[in-house]
Amino acid sequence: MTDANQQMVEQYRNNFLREVEDNVEEGGWVKMCMQCGVCSGSCPLGPHWDHPPQELFMMIRAGKRDEVLQSSSMWMCTSCYNCIVRCPRELPITHIMHGLAHYAKRLGIAPKNQPTHKFAQLFWNNLTKTGRVNELKLGLALYFMNGISEGIKTSLKMKDVGLGMMMTKRLSPMELIGGHKCKDTSGLQAILKKAEELEAARIPVAGK
Amino acid sequence: MSKKSYSFYPGCSSQKAASASNYMVSVDSMCDTLDIELNEIPDWNCCSASIGYAGGGELPRLALSARNMAISEKENPGQDIVATCAACWLATKETQERLHDNDKLMAETNEALSAAGLKVEGSQKVRHMVEVLIEDFGYDELGSHVKKPLDGIKIAGYVGCQTNRPFGIDGESYENPKYLDKLVETMGAEPIENYDKKVSCCGGALAFSEPEKSQALIKDIIESAYDGGADMIVTPCPVCQMNVEVYQNHINQKYKTNFKMPVVYYSTLMSVAYGKSGKEAGLDGQWIKAKQLEEIASK
Questions:
Q1: Are B123 and B163 contained in the same domain?
Q2: Nearest residue of B to residue A124 by CA position?
């Protein structure tokens, strides 16, 4: 268990709902859920979720802390916003799912091998490096995220897509060296560093 | 009509040799005809779309869009911010809403921005290009520039998610928005009726991390277009465009289908209808060639 996670367990004891309200993005809305299930029925990847949003909301109220935060479910949110526009109580469900996923990641207890967890981190690393997404490096990082041999297999499988994108000039090998970026990368990184510091003063981060 | 100017947020995928560079080419051509001036926000950065949340907490993610808004307010004052990418538009609009709703987040965001000497108010309207077309021009005006009507082409208007939810286009419903069909009609083509998957999700960023699950969704989106008799699909979103276009071979292999459905942008259709060349309409960027549009463009 990480220090940050232990700290929160001790601080909130058995009140997981309060913990979510205080620390998860848009978490204050969770108690408004009336368990109608429209969100779960509207979710495009819902059938793959161990616990659809409605269930996660009830589990939060029931104090199922580990089951919720270690779940792979919210990492399967496609950000389609169906749940948000259909929720009769107008809960910002998409944002709560992102918030729960981030909070679990922040405390160091998100499921390590969940592919979207890995990809979302790669995406963030990629964009914060230069201020803009480098699609080629992001694609390669994705293919090789489970090691070299699987990476080669995936690259071969995806070869036609990559070549097609290059033929239509929608992907350039030149992106490997240099590539697109912000001019004021240092300014951008200073902003992000400050924002992270301000947030960390409110919510702990594992390993820091 | 006189020239209209906007503060433009092009986004990562629009850049040269990036996945939606063909979108940008067609947008430029369309804007040329409509006399729209797009003033790029100098040194804009990525908005982190909807998938930055593993590494990025709420405040760092808000700070990303806030930086763009701050530079826009300073360098392009008095103009609306316009994005062509659904995710760019959504992230920027969400940031504006969140900052206006929460004084503490606004104060902290400005504290972060001050590290680079910037300050944000969130005063400029944040709009998608489609809103500009419909609200600042209107279908009649857009139709008045048509030189080569797209006669006889049947098109499935795939609106997708993020230009439709949670904000959407004013006056449209979430479940059956009509604007894309109206644009198709305005360009002289025929929108297919009762397109079942019009607002279904293509998997978004999860097409990369969960390819099989996403491709099952994409298959239904294409199949439903064929069922409606469509010759091609049109979309307002770079992620929708790419996801629905480039995995068709993989889907064919897995599901024993025989898909070869071109997927274009609204701006592609408009550029061709406005008499631009195939190259100016970005048709050379089609992975699956839009032959009917090529024929009209070369006439």
A1: no
A2: B52
Candidates B53, B162, B218: best to mutate against A (most CBs of A within 10 A) is B53
Exposure b/e, A115-133, CB count within 10 A at least 16 = b: bbbbbbbbbbebbbebbbb
**What is the C-alpha separation between B244 and B233, in angstroms, rounded?**
9
In a domain, B141, yes or no: no
* Residues in A 51-90 with any Cβ partner in B closer than 8 A: 76, 78-82, 84-86
CATH code of the domain in which B214 resides: 3.40.50.11810
User: Which tokens hold the place of A133?
Assistant: 């997404």
Cis amide prior to A47 (ω within 30 degrees): no
Interface contact A22, partner B, CB < 8 A: no
What are the structural domains of chain A?
3-113 (1.10.1060), 115-197 (no CATH)
Contact: B54, A105; criterion CB under 8 Å: yes
Q: In this structure, are strands B81-83 and B190-191 parallel, antiparallel, or unpaired?
A: unpaired
This prediction has a pTM of: 0.97
pLDDT of residue B1 exceeding 90, the answer is no
User: Chain B residue with minimal CA distance to A203?
Assistant: B57
ipTM: 0.96
- Mean pLDDT in residue range B170-182: 96
Contact present, B41 and B72 (Cβ < 8 Å) = yes
Q: pLDDT for A54-74, tens place per residue? A: 999 999 999 999 999 999 999
Collect all residues of chain A within an 8 Å Cβ-Cβ radius of residue B22: 168-170
The total number of structural domains that make up chain B: 2
Inspect the interface and report whether the beta carbons of A117 and B54 lie closer than 8 Å: yes
Contacts of A6 (CB under 8 A, 6+ apart): none
Q: Who contacts A138 (Cβ-Cβ below 8 Å, separation ≥6)?
A: A122, A123, A126
Q: Determine the average pLDDT of the residues in B258-263.
A: 98
Of B20, B51, B286, the CB nearest to A123: B51
What is the nearest CA distance from B80 to chain A, expressed in angstroms? 22
Q: A154 CB near a chain B CB, below 8 Å?
A: no
| Chain segment A170-202, per-residue pLDDT in tens | 999 888 887 899 999 999 999 999 999 999 999
Range of the domain at B101: 4-129
